[in-house]
Structures
1.
Amino acid sequence: MKRQAFSLTEVLLATTVIAVVASVLAPALPEVRPRPVPRPSRCQTNLKQLWVAMRLYAQDYDETWVGAYAYPNTWGQCPMFTWADLIYPYLYTTRYFACPDLPQRVLVRESGRSHCPPIASLYGVPLGQEPGTPLNPLPFGYLFNESYNYYNQFCNRCVCYEGLDCYHGMTHHSYYDPYYNDTTMDVGVKLSDVEDPTNTIVIADANPNCDRSILASAIASFYSYPRDADVEYDPYGNSYVGVGCYIGGRKMGRVDKRHREGANFLFVDGHTRWLYQTAPNMWTRYAD
């Protein structure tokens, strides 16, 4: 059976219908095009990648979280490993240590890192080119929640006069080496000791310098709690008003609120959150 060709009228009618439909859909087409990922979201993506590396580290070390640092030959001596170095074997890239909004923020340290064979070997670079040194600054936008206790108000959770066990964040204690008469590494917490994983900060947007125009530092952690956090009270209501860094009258500590006046935070359970302000209990591993 021979098919009948379309008439000119039918072709014109079909063309008109297509044109009308296109004119209706055209304004909506830009909405369905792929959009660039907003920088705060990219920052949160970096944090989630760091969490994956930390979780893999914990699996390899009997469910023990990475510590803030490891200086086996004591402070200032090669090698001085930060938490970032310790999880690097699970990433094989340094890109996730940088915040997309502030790639100029860097970790730089000469003694203990420069011309240090263990660090050069870790990163597969020649001596003198180790990341985190003056010749090769390491983009480093985040700090680790160590939460050392300086204050007696919080002493019911640790032996404050000894100091080595006075940590409330993701560090359990510092290892004391009698040979050096000094601490040489932070020991991370057992994941089973984190009482509130959904509400305990691991790492966050940060800058150790209260003058935020200074972008280089050798610091890798929020060291003291609550001085270096953005809170003025601990979970028991004790006041620390005036302690730590204030910018424009607002307590910042080492938290760098570079995303719409807030910061991105990574929590133990792996979720990320943008916050304008943290709560005191977010900096401890306890169910305060």
Note: The chain has a mean pLDDT of 88.
2.
Amino acid sequence: MDQLMNAIFMLILALNLFALGNASIISVIRIVALQGVLMGFLPLFIHSHLSFATILASLAAISLKGIVIPAIMIKALRDVQIKREVEPIIGLLPSTIIGALVTAAVFLICGRGQVPGQSESLIIPTAITVVLVGFILLTTRLKSLTQVLGYLVLENGIYMFSLLLMEAIPLVVEMGMLLDLFVSIFIVSIITNQINRTFSSLDTRHLSSLKE
């Protein structure tokens, strides 16, 4: 079981690098969606005893992170008719290299994160790495849609941390986190569409031209 879970962690880390090195926004959406699906399976492996709450949380995460939110993002992408992140603050190759170095540094510092009863788990360093990669995407991309995707990756890392406390956190709290994420993305998609209508662009540099 540990080997399967660690294989999922390795896939999640690989998807981080693919997201950093990809200019196609639709491809990044699909990468983040796949990462979300993998995240959704984690509750089933982290805790030895499956409960109704665990299964429900897993299904909710898979549905929301892997289907609903990506569908909203794809619709927003089609509405604004933008396909690529053309001028990131940091280039795609340097971003990928930074992501790889961050991953190596986190694992070097943290070693192998341990979950009670699962000594081979990599969840802690993986979660930290996902948060940091999400932050890199959020801060080095200029298109607002890509920045939202960075926020989604960052939230995936936070979600991984929350799984460590799933047995102590009531189901309503877990569902509340997912609902907050869904509402946030829904609102951001509306704002993004409005920005595009106003400025005919999703480049966030245009917002600096606004005057009070």
Note: The chain has one domain: 1-109+121-202.
